[in-house]
Amino acid sequence: MRVLLLLLFCAGCGAQPAPLMFGGARHETTVDGHRYTVYRKANQVEVIREGWAAPRDHAKIRATMIAVVPWLTGCDVLPSTVRGDSGEMRDSVTCPKGRR
């Protein structure tokens, strides 16, 4: 019973940033039925996909995770810095003057 309550509690938590991203700006969007949360702090971003995805969708989801960063933050992803998978991804970004 305790395990069930713990699982229910965790399911309601939603996307939480890595400790490195605490205090960063939070942005949310839904694309093709998948919900994404983006955290940006200085020149770093973390993208989290919430929910389940079929294995055949993972390549498309990774591309979407990279695409939502400039859309939500106004900053461009540095491709050589992309780390992670279709559930959680971290990148460095370069932002136009005024978006730093």
Automatic annotation (TrEMBL):
Which interval of the chain is the signal sequence?
1-17
The UniProt annotation puts the region (Disordered) at 81-100
The superkingdom of the source organism is Bacteria
Q: Which organism is it from?
A: Gemmobacter lutimaris
Q: Which UniProt keywords apply?
A: Signal
Q: What name is this protein filed under?
A: Lipoprotein
Does the UniProt entry include the keyword Signal?
Answer: yes
